[in-house]
Structures are given as C-alpha cells and as structure tokens.
Design goal:
Blueprint: E1 2-3, E2 11-12, H1 15-20, H2 41-54, E3 67-68, H3 73-76, E4 86-96, E5 107-108, E6 117-118, E7 121-122, H4 124-130, E8 143-149, H5 155-159, H6 163-168, H7 204-216, H8 248-259, H9 271-282, E9 293-294, E10 307-308, E11 316-318, E12 335-337, H10 359-364, H11 371-378, H12 382-392
Antiparallel strand pairs: 1-2, 3-7, 4-5, 4-6, 4-8, 9-10, 11-12
Length: 395
Amino acid sequence: MTVRPGGGRAIVCSFAAAIMLAATGCRRPLKPGDPLRGLSASERNRFDQGKLVFDSVFTPETGLGPLFNANGCAECHEDPVAGGTGDEVERHATAFHQVAPAGARQCDELAGQGGPVYQNHVTAALHTALGIDSEPVPAAATAIAARTIPDVFGFGLLDAVPDSEILAYADPDDRNHDGISGRPNRFFDGRLGRFGRKALVPTLREFNDGAFAAEQGITTPASPTEETVAGTPIPAGTDPAPDPELTEQRAELADAFVRLLAPPAPLKFSREAREGSDVFKHLGCANCHVPTLTTGDSPVAALRHKQVAAYTDLLLHDMGPDLGDLCLGLATPTEFRTEPLMGLHLMPQFLHDGRAKTPEEAIELHGGEAARSRDLFHALPPGERAALLAFLKTL
C-alpha cells in the first residue's frame, strides 16, 4: 500500500504491516521482543517485570526438575531474542487407537504414564536415584514425535480472538466443497482449543503454566504437584524445593510478558512480493492461513479489537499421512493446527518437527487437505513461484 499525503513523498508499508499498524500509520517497525504499542505505564512495567521471570534460570533448589527440558523459558525461546524460537527438539508421545471401545476416546495422551511430553533431562538427584538420563517413553505409545520450539510473539493477540471468529471458519463436513475441512480441537472439558501444534490448549495462561510444569518441572498454583516419571512416583528426596515452586505473582508476570509481546513486524513488500500475495490466494493457501483475525474485548486496550496478520484459522486440518504422528484431544495423528505465518521470516526451520529447512520444502511436504494447493504450487511458472516465496519471506 502506498500513501502520498498531500501529494508529497510516498510512505510505503507492506500489506501485512498496514494491517498491523492500521490505527497508527507507518511508524518505526517493532523489533522482535518489543511489547505491543499502546501499553499503559502499569502494563509496560508488568511486561518488564515478566521478562525477568521469563529470563530466570532455575536450579533444583529453586524448583527445576527433577524432569525437565530446559532450565528457563529463555533457554529455549531465545532466537533472535527472548520469546523467539530455539534449536532444542522435544520428544512427545501418545497412543492412538483406530478402533476404540464403546465410550472410550481414540486418543490416549498417556497422562498417567508421564505423557504427552517426555523430558530429555533429569537432575543429578534423579539420575542417582533411578539411573536414568531422560524420561523413558512407555511401550504403550504408538508414536514418538519430535517437536521444535515455536516463538511466542503475538500470542496475546491470538488469545484475544473470540471463539466465535475461529468457529466461523470451521467446515468439518466441507459443505462448500472446496476440499478444506477445518475443525476445532477441544480441551478435555469441552472448551475450544487454540494453542499448541494440535490446538489443544484453550488459553494463553494455561499454555504458559503448562510450559513451566512440562518443560522445566516448575510447579505453580495452577499445577501444584510434580509429574511422575513415566507414571512412577518421583523418588523421595529428589525434589528439594517446596511446592508450588513459582508463586502466583511470578506466574502472572511471566504470563504478562508473553501476553504483551508484539507480533514480529513484517518486511516491506517488493513488487514481486505483492504479486506473490495474489499467488498465495490463488493457490488456496489463504483458505487455512487466513490473513487476518480480529480480537474481541480485552481488559488490555492494546489487545482490544485489533486486526492480527496471523495467517492462521487456529483450526485442525488433515495434512496427510507423511506428516502424521501424534493424536491430542480430538486431533488425530494427521491433523494439525494451521501454523501462524506471522514472523515466518525469522524462522530457521519449518513444520512441527523442523524437517523442512525452507518455506519451499514446507510447501512440498503439505498433503491431505493441502494437497491441491501443493500440486498447484508444483505447476506454477518459475516467476510466480519466486513471487510466492518472496511474499512468504516478508511475513
């Protein structure tokens, strides 16, 4: 979009930047790790205090472990700044039953046996007690999957999108016959899910509290007890810190930091990238990677009634057997939440397990409901293919 106020010099914003900054015009792009624009002094203070919690390094004496993947939030969410991605790869496991007994669920998250996250590290005390270096995955698992680290930029905006907007994009029976059958995942109590690669977790606060427990072994008032070691109680004396290991105040501050992180500013459009945005729509990519979502009411003005250039519908879509791995909630092994594309230009790898090293490779690996778009991508003339990739690299 080009605007020439008063016939003077042109001010150029990308399409996505125009969406993000519609209320304020083209200003200095936000840098990764910046807070949302428009915070009050109190909200900015909570953001800054929350970053201190996010950057904290825990030890066994302050609550780490005895099972853990990282000793602090920022150990994984570090690239290019706190809140970004990381190079760690986790192990997740579940058991999917093609034919479940009457009244039973198809998916067993193995919660009673340590799942679905199996930690890669243990404290010295737990190693001495059990002689293990990581949490063992039980034989009941039907799949063990790799999970890379997502960034959490803009997650507060995703949390503020009303359920009604997400459900408006759902078409589980493909009534419009476009081959796209997005459906919601739901938490175990029936609430709409939106966070995580399988869209199981309903709220950002639960997502953040769950990360303290599953990734660092840190108990909070919301998750006040330690997990087991693959279903076996943690041996006495291996967890010296009293529960909960993180106070409610510190948990709230960590949540405030993540909630108030701004989405990454998109890069400026070139003419080629502008053409690529049209190719993106022509291929049907925007049917799942919906360009904008709109937030609803929020006590934080910076989150209230904002357009978010997230490029997702937050729904589950069948991506085909080549990408399939775990079940989770209502999500079958081949179903994944549409990955938000905001901040794509900052990502070093793609897809849920990082197997794609470029956006082009990620497109090539799309199957299931995305197979038609993938095949149309294959058929693109070189110029249109280059334009599409140029567009993606601006997001």
